[in-house]
Amino acid sequence: MAQKPSIPKGTRDFSPSEVVKRTYIMDIIKSHFVRFGFNPIETPSFENSDTLMGKYGEEGDRLIFKILNSGDYLAKANEQFLNEKNSTKLTPSISEKALRYDLTVPFARYVVQHQNEITFPFKRYQIQPVWRADRPQKGRFREFFQCDADVVGSASLWQEVELVQLYDAVFTELGIDGVVIKINNRKVLAGIAEVIGAKDKLIDFTVALDKLDKIGEDGVVKEMLEKGISETAIEKIRPLLHLSGSIESKLEELAKLLSESEEGTKGVEELRFICSKIQALGLGKTVLDLDVTLARGLNYYTGAIFEVAAPASVGLGSIGGGGRYDDLTGIFGLKNISGVGISFGLDRIYLVLEALNLFPETVNSVAKALFLNYGEDESLFAMQAITKLRAAGLTVELYPDKAKTAKQLQYADKRGIQFAVICGEDEIAQNKYGLKNLATSEQVELSFEELQKAFSN
Predict the structure, then answer these.
(1) DSSP 175-196
(2) Closest to 80 (Cα-Cα) out of 89, 70, 71, 72
(3) What global pTM score does this model have?
(4) Cβ-proximal residues to 278 (8 Å cutoff; 6+ apart), any chain
């Protein structure tokens, strides 16, 4: 007996209704990308390994899917590392390519390769799948779509202001209440590390701090101690773990703490600019909040960092994130090109809309009407009407086979089709169409013009 087929963990098949709902979200996101002046690009699903490795920190590198070389991939394998079963050192000799982890690093590579064709500042959006060798769980998949918008070639903080507005515009149109756009600044984090005497352990400090909502204060403290950060230093930052109040009050507290750090003070000033401008401009359904524990464990952020939290009632965590990277293209040889970008987590946004029942009833792929099949002549008569209705932008279809009426109506019911159109001998003789409402069983005889008007309404 043949084994039942399956798909890898962390991946999914999508039904027609799911694809339509995902497309609904992507269309809204894309429409706002365009409205804000972003242009589309696409990059390959896999990149050279050296393009990706080393760009996401140690934890990120472990989550990159490596692709084995074509053919006999062991032919050029390093025998010493193979015999030692040292997978880390062996991998470069058997794998030269990898699936992209995100869209930002491939975008940086794109900018460097096409720098002579690009007009700076360059605003691009990209909606494509990415892959991460993560442990699958609710809202976390190994294959998922990202919807990114980035600006490179401008250090202006107005870009950050617009990206906050972009987040707000999308989530407001989607109708999601309770979305919180969290903001922090890597310069603030660097300043904190400096004033507590842990400047040399900035990465360890930020990676641990970023896990506060997952492992709690005790877990963060434990990890920092394990990384060699002193108890004295940790005690100095404890008040920050419980910082509350308005953005203005939080900024005042930070300004006092970081008064002796030039970098930290600059980070506070940048946050003050962005937050004050958003306050003056106003937001729709979202809320902007300063979260000094937000670190986002990616090495390339240098300024503002964002994370978008789903409504607390859904319990899904982050549904978007991003930040400022002053020299990401520098890793590929193009120096002094500042950029900033954000990403929308399509799959998690989908789960939020499902949980809150926010998909409009009109979002479906179901035909408006099914024309019943009574034979060749009747089907031709039906198809003449179907052709005209489709040309008018209406979704209708013909049952493909001549079958019992009950079977055809059962098919329409299972598909969720609202109307059946009857084109029998009598209808042809009168040049009419029987329109049956399958929910109420009400049936009327209509001319083609009346039929089209009924569907259009």
Answers:
(1) T--S-EEEEEEHHHHHHHHHHT
(2) 89
(3) 0.85
(4) 161, 164, 165, 288
DSSP 330: G
Q: What is the pLDDT of residue 39?
A: 97
CA atoms within 13 A on the CB side of 411: 19
- Determine the Cα angle at 229 with ends 250 and 220, to 5°: 60
Decide: 104 and 18 in contact? Cβ < 8 Å.
no
Q: What is the pLDDT of residue 299?
A: 64
Which is more confidently placed, 13 or 81?
Answer: 13
Q: How far apart, in whole angstroms, are the C-alpha atoms of residue 446 and residue 457? A: 14
83 to each of 77, 80, 89, 386, how far by Cα in Å? 10, 5, 11, 68
Residue 206 has pLDDT above 80, yes or no: no
215-230 pLDDT tens trace: 877 787 787 888 777 7
- Give alpha helix (H) positions in 227-355: 231-237, 247-257, 262-281, 346-355
- What percentage of the chain has pLDDT greater than the value 70? 98
CB distance 198 to 261 below 8 Å: no
Task: Check pLDDT > 60 for residue 239.
Answer: yes
Tokens of 181: 């756009």
β-pairing, 143-152 vs 122-131, is antiparallel
Domains identified in the chain and CATH numbers: 9-64+101-174+313-361 (3.30.930.10), 180-309 (3.30.930.10), 369-456 (3.40.50.800)
Q: Which two tokens stand for residue 304?
A: 């503002």
DSSP-derived pairing of the beta strands 122-131 and 39-40: parallel
Q: What is the mean pLDDT of the chain?
A: 90
- Distance, in Å, from the CA atom of 265 to the CA atom of 274, rounded to the nearest integer, reads 15
